[in-house]
Structure formats: structure tokens, C-alpha cells
Hints:
Radius of gyration of chain B: 21 Å
Shape of chain B: elongated
Number of strands of chain A: 13
Structural class of chain B: alpha/beta
Number of strands of chain B: 16
Helix content of chain B: 25-40%
Order of helices and strands of chain A: EEEHEHEHEHEEEEHEHEEH
Oligomer: heterodimer
Order of helices and strands of chain B: EHEHEHEHEEEEEEEEHEHEHEHEH
Strand order of the largest sheet of chain B: 5-9-4-1-2-3-10
Largest sheet of chain B: 7 strands, parallel
Distance between the termini of chain A: 58 Å
Shape of chain A: globular
Helix content of chain A: 25-40%
Amino acid sequence: MKVLVPVKRVLDYNLKVRVKPDGSGVDLSNLKMSINPFCEIAVEEAVRMKEGGGGHVAGAASEVIAVSIGPEQAQETLRNALAIGADRGVLVKADGEVEPLAVAKLLKAVIEAEKPDLVVLGKQAIDDDNNATGQMLAALLGWPQATFASKIVLQSGKATVTREVDGGLQTLDVELPAIVTTDLRLNEPRYASLPNIMKAKKKPIDVKTPADLGVDVTPRLKVIKTAEPAKRQGGAKVKTAGELVGKLKEAGVL
Amino acid sequence: MAVLVVAEHDNASVKDATHKVVTAAKAMSADVDVLVAGSNAGAAAQAAAKIAGVRKVLHADGATLAKQMAEPLEALIAPLMANYDAVLFPATTTGKNAAPRVAAKLDVMQLSGVIGVEGADTFVRPIYAGNAIITVKDEQAKKVLTVQPTAFKAAGEGGSAAVESVAAPSGPFKSAFVSEEMAKSDRPELTAAKRVVSGGRALGSSEEFHRVLDPLADKLGAAVGASRAAVDAGYAPNDYQVGQTGKVVAPELYVAIGISGAIQHLAGMKDSKVIVAINKDEEAPIFQIADFGLVADYKAAVPELMDELTKAGV
């Protein structure tokens, strides 16, 4: 079984987000970029399907292909996925903003060439917080989807997926090929070892362009302003629980 | 322009999130219809018809819609969009699961987690876990939005819209419901609660989490929430998680106990009216946004707070 894992290069999740003073966007210059944490979980899950572990039998996946859409530097993100254990990479080189709809179209084209049985991807990217690419890809392919997965059990011709939903947990069967998007509790990604990081440098990355795949990536939405969120006035302290209850009564919330 | 709102409901009743999304829709257009897609959902459809300002309720009923899964919702909603210029889903797990499928089917780029409507084609939404707010112009012929319900006031009752039946999709579909484990609780639902008591990693164990938070929540009539750290550590179930990747809440009173205040948690609760933080670490970032901070060990502070609440007649 072939597994395809799309990965996105985003601002490192430990870094503070700074809005440009002129409101034209978020300042990313000279800041560390990393693999989107949800994508990292997706890579880890796919690699476990190949190596065994996390409830998967070794060999359940025969090959893990990582795909990234982004600038030249997204190669680093792919190397990261290869160091975790993906076998090879595909970079679709696109500078500037590529919206989830265009990403889904590009992935569809890659999938039609690669013919994977399963696509595992992060439920959302921590930069644009769209939570849309996986579902859009499923619709474009006419495949079933199981989003927000906290557990994946592979069986013959299907996957049984437990999803984190508002009221608790929901379990679905999806026929393969299918799309699964990962939630935080699916697994804890490993730290890539130095030998594996070295090995990853030798793994092949195939580079394509949106034109090669016949996809128009012109954005549909226009961002007209980027602003800092309104600052919340806080910081007052109380000394005792009694004083706290008094303040809450004054505020009219008790 | 005509706008369709996809109702959040449990077949028996419509959730408050629906009323809030109706308010967002009314900021775009006067012509707002509500879709109730479910199984034996007649009662929910009738309830939707009573929401003030709703023009018409579309009621699709069938076994394929029993769990409101993404594939049947796409099959139902995409063709209905011939009659609408925009469709709004609540940004709940049901809405977030289905909306992008509909958008892709219509070849539309979706707007996710909208918190402001500035006109029929201009919207406000957070990115980077709420660390930046963007204003976006959407000039596509059809629009697909998920709307953050907590950002809007609930539409009132008093409407009397007609209910029109539409056919449920017949399938077959390639995904099948197997089972669910839903939390059973007498407490209010987290996203709709007027008061929320939340615990963090400082609680140290699942037993301690419930020992400390449950009585306080019951005293306040509050829902119980948790930080991502507490959920990841297994102290609380996933559906308790408040934050960027969990639930967004905006109650009148939010009490954070043993929560340091990571950015991703703040993104899920900073619109609460009054925020109380109890933490023994004076430097915890949660104090910067809390209206009332109490620097104290929760082990002593929560029992004292319970006593003081009792004294105050709560």
C-alpha cells in the first residue's frame, strides 16, 4: 500500500507572530520555518504504517511519499519528512500564497500520477488556520474522508478511523483510497536521528511546477488588511479568594 | 443575494450556534434560509423556523444524514447552491468537516472561522491562532464560509418561517458510521456555557483534575474545559480542549486553574467577558490577560474560593 503525505512549510510554532506595521501581512523575514506540526504527525503515522508500531503492522505501507507545495526552501521541509522515514519527495515549486483550493488541485494531479491508497495530512496549518485542504482534496477526488483522526486502524480495503469531534469521539469506516487528516493525539512524532538526517539528504526529490500539473494557482481571495488582534486589558491581581468573589460580584458575573 | 445557513442540531433541537450564524448571515443579506439536514429531524426543523429573521427552512431528512457526515452533506448542499450566493456553516467539527467539500465541489475557495462580516463580500478572520486578524475580500460568485459562532450574538426567537422538504441524498457513500463515544454530562455544553472552569497541566492527574474542578464547576453551574497540555497528558478528554485547535469559547466568566496561558490556549478563550486566573507562578502569561489574577497554589485557593462562594450565597 502506497501512502502519500502532503507537508507544509510554516513559521516555527515557537516563534512570536509579528504583524508588519503597514498592515500588509505577517513578517516572516529571517525567521525560522519548520514543518507544520499537524503535518509532522501525518508523516510519523505513515512511517509507522511502513515500519510497524503505533498499532500498525510493519509493511502495511510499502512506500511513503512526501509532497510539499511551496518555494525552493520547502525542500528543507521535505528533507524533514524524509528524515522521519518517508522514502522520497515531490516538490511543487510555487512562490507566494497558494490557497488550499489550489493546493488540493495540485495534490490531486500528483495523486493521479502516484496512485496512492491512502493520503494522510494535517488537519490544519498553524499559519492560515484554514482546516480545508484535506476535505477539498477528498471532494475533488470523490474519495471518502475521515478528518481530525486520533486513531487509524488499517484493514483490507478500508481504514477504521476514530475522530475527535465536539461531543467526544466518533469512529468511521472509510473505503480505500481515502483521505485522513490528523489531530494532535494521533501520535507523538519522533526526533529524527543524525544518521537518518544524513540518509535523508540522499533520498530523491522530484521537482515540478504548477504549470507541469496544469493547475492555475492564482488566489481567489484578496487580503486587504492584516492587523494585530485587539489587546485585552488585563493584569489586575487580587490577594485572596474573598476579594476575588467580591470583584466577581461587582462585575455582575456571579 | 440569498444566503443558506447550515444548522447545527441534534435532530431534536437546533443548537445556539445556528442562531449565531444566522446573525452573521443577516449582516450579508436579508434573504437567509436555514438548512436542517438530519434523520427524524422534524422537531429541529420546526425549531429553526422560529429563529427570528429566517425566510425559509429547508428540511432534508433521511438515513444517510443521520450522522451529518461530510460526503452526504456535500451531495445535498452542492446542488442546492444553484439557488444561493453563499452558504455559511458553523465552525463546529461538523461544519469544518463538510464545508470545504462543498467549496471544492463548487470550485470556490472557502473562508474559515469568520469572526466579522463587513458587508456581503468582506469578512474578518483570525490567522496564526488569533495572533493576526485579516480582512478579506471574497468576490467569488458563490461564497462558502465557516463562521465562529462565539463572535456573533444569537438571533432571537419569534420567527415563523415556512418549512420546505428537500430530498436527502440516497448514496451509497464510501464512508460508514461505526460508533461514537459521546461525553455524558449534566453540565452545560462547553461552547454555549455562560461560565467555564478550565484546568491545566498543573493539576497533575486525571483524578486531581476532576477532584478539583468538578465541584467548582457544579457550584458555578459551569462547563469544564482544559488546556491542550492537560488533554495531551490525559487528565481530561479531547472534547474539553479550549484553544486554537480545540474549542473557542466566550463565556461571561472563564476561570483558568493551573493554566500557564500558552498562545494557543488564549486563542480559544480571550473573548470571554471576565477571565479569572489562579496559578502559583506569578510570571504565567495568563495573568497578562486575566481581569482578576490570584497568585496561589490551586490546592489552597480552590477550597477557599468554594467557601467564599458559599458565603456569598452562590
